[in-house]
Specification:
Blueprint: E1 2-5, H1 11-21, E2 26-31, E3 36-37, E4 55-57, E5 63-65, H2 67-77, H3 90-110, H4 121-141, H5 154-163, H6 165-169, H7 177-187, H8 190-198
Parallel strand pairs: 1-2
Antiparallel strand pairs: 1-4, 2-3, 4-5
Helix pairs in contact: 1-2, 1-5, 1-8, 3-4, 3-5, 4-7, 5-7
Length: 204
């Protein structure tokens, strides 16, 4: 498989999932500002007409997008399905529930509103207020458990990736001690450390 990613983007969650299950893949960095490939300068739109990451290319040449869907596919490659749970199980429901929460309540509140300079200040303020409410909700949830769906799952990889954008945007998490502790637990996982280093987000 080939993973097309941009450092620290939502593709990081897919990158983590691939490393968690130990599947072989090649990683290709994309410059989202120019939509070119870092390893050769090719036009990324030739690979991904929508121009965004993540994108997984399978050995048969087919290409697939949408991070939450890709994470579920990757988790199912592990026979034990430890990162998602078996079809029809309460575990799987809990994991996919949190995947959806991160996708709709966090990811789409951060992006595009807080990443674009042209976004009105009032819109940015409203987005940050909504994020604070969602962080408070997660902080309360994490007061009684180590991970979002009980044991560690792809929902934690996705949630970590998106909440980590707070660091890039200068949004403090000081009011959310349980959320910060969860971020530290996820960050300490070997697969997460490997992905962060591979993307140049963590130095030795």
């Amino acid at each position: 498989m080939k993973l097309y990613y941009a450092p620290g983007a939502c593709s990081l969650a897919v990158h983590i999932a691939l490393r968690e299950i130990g599947v072989a893949f090649d990683a290709h960095q994309v410059d989202l500002a120019t939509h070119t490939l870092a390893d050769g300068g090719g036009n990324y739109f030739d690979i991904a007409p929508r121009g965004y990451v993540p994108l997984l290319e399978f050995d048969d040449g087919s290409r697939h997008t949408e991070g939450a869907a890709l994470q579920q596919y990757i988790a199912d490659l592990d026979p034990a399905q430890a990162l998602i749970g078996a079809p029809g199980s309460r575990r799987r429901l809990a994991v996919t529930q949190w995947l959806t929460y991160v996708s709709t309540e966090l990811h789409k509140t951060f992006s595009p509103w807080l990443w674009h300079k042209e976004t009105a200040d009032s819109t940015k303020r409203d987005a940050k207020l909504k994020l604070a409410a969602r962080f408070a909700d997660m902080d309360k949830h994490l007061a009684t458990r180590e991970f979002l769906a009980g044991d560690y799952s792809i929902a934690d990889a996705y949630g970590f990736t998106i909440v980590n954008w707070s660091n890039f945007l200068g949004i403090p998490l000081s009011d959310f001690p349980n959320l910060r502790a969860w971020m530290a637990r996820v960050s300490a996982r070997p697969a997460v450390q490997q992905a962060l280093r591979a993307e140049g987000l963590l130095k030795d």
